[in-house]
Structures are given as C-alpha cells and as structure tokens.
Amino acid sequence: MLRTVLLSLTLAMLVSACNTLNGMGKDIEKAGEAVQKSTK
Questions:
Q1: Any alpha helices (H) in the chain, and if so which ranges?
Q2: pLDDT value at residue 3
Q3: Which pTM value belongs to this model?
Q4: CA angle, 13 then 18 then 23, to 5°
Q5: Per-residue pLDDT, 9
Q6: How confident is the model over 1-40, as pLDDT tens digits?
Q7: Collapsing DSSP states into helix, strand and coil, what is residue 1?
Q8: DSSP one-letter code for 40
Q9: How far apart are CA 35 and CA 39, in angstroms?
Q10: Rounded to an integer, what distance in angstroms lies between the CA atom of residue 2 and that of residue 32?
Q11: Rounded Cα gap, residues 26 and 34, in angstroms
Q12: What is the CA radius of gyration of the chain?
C-alpha cells in the first residue's frame, strides 16, 4: 500500500515538472521571437 502511494506521488511530481518545463520552453521561444522581430 505504501509503495503504491509513493509511486503515485512520484509520478505526479514528474508530470508536473514536465508541464513546468514545457511552459518555460514556450516562454523562451516567445522571447526569442520578439528579439528576432526587433532586429528586422
């Protein structure tokens, strides 16, 4: 029982970390696009 709970919590943390990194990647991409537009 305890093992199942720990496994569930670990999976939940990994999924939320992936979502955070995904969001950060989108923010960096938008910043890069803004720099490209400003140099044209």
A1: 2-39
A2: 87
A3: 0.48
A4: 125
A5: 82
A6: 888 888 888 888 777 777 777 777 888 888 888 878 887 7
A7: coil
A8: -
A9: 6
A10: 45
A11: 12
A12: 18
Rounded Cα distance, 38 and 40, in Å:
6
d(CA 20, CA 7): 20
- The Cα 27–Cα 31 span in angstroms is 6
Q: How far is CA 26 from the centre of its chain?
A: 9
pLDDT attached to residue 25: 80
Nearest-angstrom CA–CA distance, 6 and 15: 14
Sign, Cα dihedral of 11, 15, 20, 24: positive
